[in-house]
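Hi there,

I know you've been waiting on this one. I reran it after we fixed the sequence typo, so this is the corrected version. Both the input and the resulting structure follow.
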Amino acid sequence: MGASVTGIEPQQDNIKAAVAHAQGDPVVAARTNYLALTAEELAASGEQFDAVMGLEIVEHVDEPQQFLKTLASLTKSDGALFISTINRTARGYALTILGAEYIAGILPKGTHDWDKFVTPEELHMLTEDTGLELEQVAGMVMNPITGAWSLSTSTEVNYIAYFTKTSLAVRLQEQKAQPGVHSKAADLASV
């Protein structure tokens, strides 16, 4: 497709592994730049992207709302943000923590904290006042035989959300079309 990709990860060892993996495909290696940074460090540089992906990380951060604001700041106006995470349900706990960590041993014990799992509704609420509009949520399921992932209608365990980012000017224009509706965009414009 011709895209250039920037991959970030705060742990240098993980960056080295990603670079080594990318070397298996010369096209990927040539179009991918890996940086040992946090999202917050990258956002502080003023860098923005057409598409941002926060995959399987929201459930590991201490302040998910602030993290999502950071990801929104990395997303250009009219850009897209994709978030995948684990739903805080009994099945999510059973498959991810009990199954993957304690029974199958696929993940180290303690990798996940059920209290940090985020429901799709909470994810939507956490993105309020960021300029992000939720477009779609879909479940994700893994085929245990092939290891392949596919989209599903069930968000009971893993899910992915697709957001678009609208500019402040567009949000203000939309508010003018809806008199009496209060928004953070109007507050920002009046400062």
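Quick highlight: The beta strands are 5-8, 32-35, 49-55, 75-86, 132-142, 149-152, 158-165.

Best,
R. S.
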